[in-house]
Design brief:
191 residues; alpha/beta; Rossmann fold; 7-stranded mixed beta sheet; 27% strand
Length: 191
């Protein structure tokens, strides 16, 4: 955890434009179709998704390992008077509460050990939105497979959820340097 925290602290001190910019266009497009209520932003960083969700009526829990990023997020939430709770956690060791969140956003963060907890953390009828790099042998080095999902991997992992949208978007350099996997899935309202 210490090495991960130091790495991310340094990235956030320097600034990572992709992590500090506007919310994902995928989240923006899907937001009108997602249940309202309590949301979880995993690996929230400086809060581009947490702030956006809170601005649209969600009560948000934002988890990240970087104290620098969470400090920026908490400052923005205070300035805008938004209901965001930021917590510094090691996502390798977190235990998510059961049946709690109406929406979970997992953007550009892959932790295979955490994935099985996500459906359990959804409230009945809750939604999971994932957008993460997809391994593409045409553009990725084989060592990057640990940090990219494989073809149809998320569809298999979340097969117990009702998948409303699933796509694997190939890389198209120079505009999009990496392939992406995007998915929106819902937990049954009857569990």
């Amino acid at each position: 955890m210490r090495e991960d925290r130091l790495e991310w602290e340094q990235k956030h001190v320097v600034g990572v434009p992709a992590l500090e910019g506007p919310p994902s266009s995928y989240l923006v497009a899907w937001l009108p179709h997602l249940p309202k209520g309590r949301a979880l932003d995993l690996a929230a960083g400086c809060g581009r998704h947490a702030i956006y969700l809170a601005q649209h009526g969600y009560r948000v829990d934002a988890l990240d390992i970087s104290l620098v990023a969470l400090s920026r997020l908490a400052h923005q939430a205070r300035v805008q008077r938004l209901p965001v709770r930021a917590a510094a956690v090691d996502l390798d060791d977190v235990m998510l509460p059961w049946a709690t969140y109406d929406l979970i956003v997992n953007s550009y963060y892959l932790n295979r050990a955490l994935l099985p907890q996500l459906p359990q953390a959804l409230a009945p009828g809750g939604a999971l939105l994932v957008e993460t790099p997809l391994y593409d042998p045409a553009v990725d080095h084989p060592s990057e497979i640990a940090h990219r999902v494989g073809p149809r991997e998320l569809a298999r992992v979340f097969s117990d959820l009702r998948i409303a949208h699933y796509e694997e978007v190939p890389a198209s350099p120079p505009r999009r340097k990496r392939a992406l996997c995007r998915m929106v899935a819902f937990r049954s309202p009857f569990r």
